[in-house]
Backbone:
């Protein structure tokens, strides 16, 4: 991730407080759409955060952001992820921690690999990371942050929903 992207994320974090995670999720959704994701569904409340198709494969992302150096997975997160794995989908935990050296980690989810309720650093997710998918999305995320940080700061989630609505492949559950 570029330094300018980190600076914009810090700026966003400083202005939006508790909405930060949801806004980053929406910004990631835009980046996925820019990377040619199809039939993308973004959920702001219940269920897996992002579901989409990319190159004829079905993906599901549970998005985790942190204002520290760790995240945790709830029992509800694990149940939803396990259910999608059983359905045969590609299931990922998309993790973005705070820090100038941090970047997205798209970690393939496998049942029984991640503990419930424990603080996990980005290193916990690295053994199952999908570097090709990260590399495919990274330049789009940088570009989306450049274009839409002001919208996210000023208009928050409703502003980002308007951005997402401009993509025919987007839908909200």
Residues:
């Amino acid at each position: 991730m570029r330094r300018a992207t980190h600076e914009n994320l810090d700026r966003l974090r400083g202005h939006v407080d508790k909405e930060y995670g949801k806004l980053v999720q929406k910004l990631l959704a835009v980046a996925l759409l820019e990377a040619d994701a199809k039939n993308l569904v973004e959920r702001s409340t219940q269920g897996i955060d992002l579901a989409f198709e990319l190159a004829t494969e079905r993906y599901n992302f549970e998005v985790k952001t942190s204002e520290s150096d760790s995240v945790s997975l709830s029992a509800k997160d694990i149940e939803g992820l396990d259910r999608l794995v059983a359905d045969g989908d590609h299931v990922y935990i998309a993790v973005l921690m705070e820090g100038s050296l941090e970047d997205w980690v798209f970690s393939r989810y496998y049942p029984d690999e991640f503990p419930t309720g424990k603080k996990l650093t980005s290193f916990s997710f690295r053994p199952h990371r999908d570097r090709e998918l990260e590399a495919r999305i990274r330049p789009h995320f940088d570009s989306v942050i450049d274009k839409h940080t002001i919208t996210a700061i000023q208009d928050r989630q409703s502003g980002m929903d308007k951005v997402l609505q401009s993509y025919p492949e987007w839908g909200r559950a």
Q: What stands out?
A: The chain has one domain: 3-166. Residues 3-166 form a domain with the Trna Endonuclease; Chain: A, domain 1 fold (CATH 3.40.1350.10).
